[in-house]
Structure formats: C-alpha cells, structure tokens
Amino acid sequence: MEIKLEYTRKRSEFGRPCSFSDLPGEVTVDIPPDPSLAAEFIPQDPVTVALQHGPVMAVHEVNTERVEVTSQGVNHVEGGWPKHIDPRNSDMTTRFREEVERDDVYTRAILHLGTLMEHCIRQNNAIDIYEEYFEEDEEQEEEEIPSAKTVSVLRDPNEVRRMATHLSWHPDACKELAVAYCSLDFQDKRSDMSFDSYIWDLGNPYKPELTLMLSSPAVTLEYNPKDWHHVLGGCYNGQIVYWDTRKGGLTVEVTPMGLSHRDPVYGASWLPSRTGTECFSASTDGQVLWWDIRKLSQPSDRLILDITREDQLKNALGAISLNFSLSMPTKFLVGTEQGSIINCNRDAKTPTEKIANVFRGHIGAVYAVARSPFYPKVFLSVGDWTARIWSEEILDSSSIMETKCHVPYLLDGCWSPVKPAVFFTARSDGTLDVWDFLFHQKNPSLSLKVSNEPLFSLCPQDNGRIIGCGTKQGTVTLVEISSGLCTLRKNEKSLASTMFEREARREKALLDKQRELQVREQLLAQAKGREEKEDPQEVFKQTRTEFFSIIQAEKRRRGDAEPEKDEEEAAVQE
User: Fold this and answer.
1) Residue 174 near residue 180, CB atoms below 8 Å
2) Using alpha carbons only, what angle is made at residue 382 by residues 342 and 418, rounded to the nearest 5 degrees?
3) Residue 168: which pLDDT band, with cuts at 50, 70 and 90?
C-alpha cells in the first residue's frame, strides 16, 4: 500500500518576490565588430525579418449547409364557420351571429377582452413608441440631388431581337417580372422569329423563370391582382389567352379567331369581381371586348369606339392604349390612334351611353394613358411629342398642364405610385425622364440615358423605387432612382391637389372667356351678313318713306293744334 502526502503552498509565501518597474535602457556589454572577420561573410541588404506574436494556426474553412425551401399548406380548423352554416348566405350568417352574441360565455369573454384592450390602449396613449423624435431635423436637411442607377438588365434570349412591348410586375412584392415580346414593325415576317414571352425572376437575370409559349406574339401581359398565378395576354393576331403559372408555360385557353379582335390587342386588364376571372381588352379594330376566362368561347359584352354614338364599326377609332384603375371601377380610359382620349362608363345601359366624353389634344397616337393613383379625376396621357395632364371635371377642354415639346417622340408614360406629382416618360432616343411638377414644370427633374434604342414600355414597382424600361431590341433595364424621387414628403399630397385644382380653375376660366369671344364673333358675323344682304337702293327708299311719313304726321299734329290755339286767344280777349 502506497501512501502519498501532498503539501501545497502559495508561491507568494516562499522565495524572493519579483518586482517589476520601468527603467531606462542600460548597456551592460559592448562587443565591437572585428574587421578581420568581414571578409568571410557576405552582407545581405535589405534584411527582412518577420515576427508573429500570435499562434500559427492551420488553414481551415467552414461550409454551412444550404437552406432548403419548401412550400406547404396549413389547414386552419379554428375560428371558421360551422359546417351547417353557408358563409355565402347572409341570412344564415346573421342568424348565427345573433345566437352567439346572446350567449353568456360570449358576453363574459368580450368583457374580459375589453379590459385587456383598455389597458393596452392606455399604455399606447401614455407613450407613443412610433413617435418621430428627429422629424424636424430631417426636414431641415438639404435636398438630395436626383439620381438613378442601373441595377439589372434582362435580355431577350433569342437571336432575333424583338421589342419589349409591355411589362407587368408580380403582385406579391414584385419578385417577378412578366415581359411581352413582339415585333410591331410594318410587315416584319422574319421566319426565324420566336413567338415566346417570358417571366423573369429578379434573383436570376440571366435565364427566364418561365417561358410563355404562344402561336402569335404577345403584345401585352397582365398579372391577375387577385389570383397571382393567372397571367392575361393579348396577342398580335387579336386573340386573348391566359396562363396558369402552376401548370407551366402552355396556355390554358384561347379565344376563337372568329370572335376575337381583328387587329393586335394593345390593351388588356383584369376587372374587380367576386370570382377574379373577368377581364376586358381593346384593339386598333375599334372594339372593346369583355371576357370571362372560365368561358373564352365568346365575349360577354362589346363596345364599339364610335364617338359619333351611332355604334358603327366603320366609324370607330382604333384603341392603342387602355387604362383601368380600381379607384374608379366603373370607368376606364382608351387612347386612340387619332389622338383622342375616350372616357368610357362600363356600367351604362346602352352602347352610346358608355362613351361618356372625349378629350382631344394630341396630334398623333396616344401611346399611354394612366389615371392618377391619388386623384381619380386626374389622368396622364402621352402622345406625339408631349405628355399632358387632364381633369375629368373640365369637358371639351384642353389639358390643364403639359410638358414642353420634345424633339424625339414620347412612346410611354406612367405615374409614380408613391408621389402624387411625379410621373415618368420614355423617349424614342432611349432617355427616361422623371418629372416632378411640384418643383419643375418646364424641365424634367432627372433625365437618364438608359439605352441607345427607343424605350417602348415603362412600369414602376409598387414602392416607386425601381422602374422597368423595355427597349426596341428586347432589353429590359431595371433602374433604381434616388430616395428623394420615391419618398412622400410632408404636405406633398395637399400641395399637389391644390396645384391641380388651381390649374383646373384657370383652364375653366380661359374656356369661358373663349366661349364668350366665340359668341361675340358669331353675333358680329350675323350682323355683317345682314348688312351684306340688304340692297342700298331699297334701304334709301325705305328711309325716304319713313322720313316723309314723320313729316306728314308732324304737320297733321300741328294743324290740329292751331284751331285750338285761336279759340284760347279769343276767350282771353273777351
């Protein structure tokens, strides 16, 4: 058996303690060099010595596992209607609510929740956690210089380039972009031209996410805001098609040729409905057709764009742009090839009443028309060399505001979704103009040379920061503008409203003055016409006859007055 005894003692209790202090350098030994030994050595100049005070570690790396994303559904079984209650039947749901509200358990639960909510509301009223403490300091900062930069470029994967005629952002956070590719050149019949359009994922700009296959090129594409998987398309041959992106790039259904448009479909839009399947389209054949994608065998309604209100297709104006806004669900705007803008009411009973009024002001075709997202009665039109702002309150009048006359053509335009007085225009020289009418009305706030080819289409994201620009060669450039052009400032909405109302009143006053001058000119013309029709000889004879008749009447009056005067004189003498 081995016996061990361990004796421990602190180091500070034995030995001489170390005392450290700062002392200047001291030379203890000085060994001078021996010149006789220099011949045996070769001097090295320069001398580099590497010192490392940390531990030397081997090269290593860490590779994390890739995150796998899956889509799965969740079945909610609580909080819904019972099985015996049809949620579409308002009588049954109302009766069920009344029965639940009379229950004592429901009353106690509401009273308990009411006390909790009251406590939370009192806390929020006491301290505002969303209060802006430096709001005044932010307003005092200098104005940011407008700028823009290119963030991504999407190119047509085909060798034969086509125009990017229309863009449509995905309604869910704009994560995808649908681009319609079509050649609108006159009699362009290249045999190797592709008819496909594409949906691009912004995370992969080098390869399309989905190929939309067609028998005729698509002129326009639109995402369904209610059902994101449905994409509506208008073709060059006049047909209307739609896709379900969950089923791939093949079309689900196509309208028959005999009942479709006769010309290319330049505008197509979804309508707000309970089913989310209704849409309508416009074409240069002068027709607006309403459809339901559940039954595309024939249109549900038809409107002929005859501004003479005779409902004749031979007098119809060709539609080259279409706009529908949820802010005014009963109306839509149609831009025509003849330079007129037709304001239509789709809820009217007769076709003639559906054409509410017509606005005239452009010399050439109206390539784009868009209603303001902030003021439903104000809309923008782009055509020939100018962009104009109109007001529906002033009928039979010119625009209330307009840009300067550009040298190149303007081919597209749209409003900013976040700033009420900002809009974008695309020019045929490849320049993107950003206008802010609150600050500059004669020149754009920002002009950016996007491409050397003409810009055919524009479409901003919902936040207004990134704008898609489609060119003639099929290249889609995504441009990011500075925060000053996509951030709503304080009182900016009221200032823009005041500006539009002021210009509308001014235009109305000028219109009344013009009408007054026209009435005066008409009266002067009528008077001058009467003078020219009268014969001078007849006027002389009539004047002579009137003159002598006046003399004879005066003589008779005086002859009757003289006997009465003699009788009065005789009575005075007596």
Assistant:
1) no
2) 100
3) very high
Give the structural domain span for 167. Answer: 148-486
How many angstroms separate the CA atoms of 503 and 400, rounded? 6
Residue 229: partners with Cβ closer than 8 Å, 6 or more residues away: 244, 245, 246
> Is residue 480 within 8 Å of residue 457, measured between CB atoms?
no
Q: Are residues 265 and 157 in the same domain?
A: yes
| Run of H or E residues at 565 | helix 536-573
pTM score? 0.67
The C-alpha atoms of residue 566 and residue 572 are separated, in whole angstroms, by: 10
**Going by DSSP bridges, is the β-strand pair 401-402/410-415 parallel, antiparallel, or unpaired?**
unpaired
Contact 406, 454 (CB under 8 A): no
The residues facing 380 across adjacent strands are 370, 389
- Residues 358 and 462 grouped into a single domain: yes
Distance CA 422, CA 504 (A): 18
Paired tokens of 62: 């860490």
Same domain, 434 and 527: no
Nearest alpha-carbon partner for 362 in 382, 339, 335: 339
Q: Are residues 426 and 448 in the same domain?
A: yes
d(CA 129, CA 423): 35
367-383: per-residue pLDDT in tens?
999 999 999 899 999 98
Res 566: pLDDT: 54
Residue 227 CA from chain centroid, whole number = 20
- CA–CA dist 415, 461 (Å, integer): 11
Distance, in Å, from the CA atom of 384 to the CA atom of 337, rounded to the nearest integer, reads 11
Number of alpha helices (DSSP H) and beta strands (DSSP E) in the chain:
6, 28
How far is the C-alpha of 243 from the C-alpha of 218, rounded, in Å? 12
Contacts of the segment 254-258: beta carbons below 8 A, 24+ positions apart: 254/215, 254/296, 255/291, 255/296, 255/297, 255/299, 256/297, 256/298
> Can you read off the two tokens belonging to residue 519?
């009435």
Cβ neighbourhood burial of 311 (10 Å; 0-12, 13-18, 19+): middle
- The answer on pLDDT for 279 being more than 90 is yes
- Here the CATH number for the domain that contains residue 247 is 2.130.10.10
Q: Is residue 468 part of a domain?
A: yes
Position 439, amino acid: F
Q: Which two tokens stand for residue 278?
A: 């209704």
Can you give the pLDDT at residue 31?
A: 84
- Beta bridge partners, 290, equal 280, 301
Nearby residues of 479 by Cβ (< 8 Å), 6 or more positions away: 148, 149, 150, 151, 432, 448, 450, 466, 467, 468, 469
- Give me the helices (H) in 277-417, please: 351-354
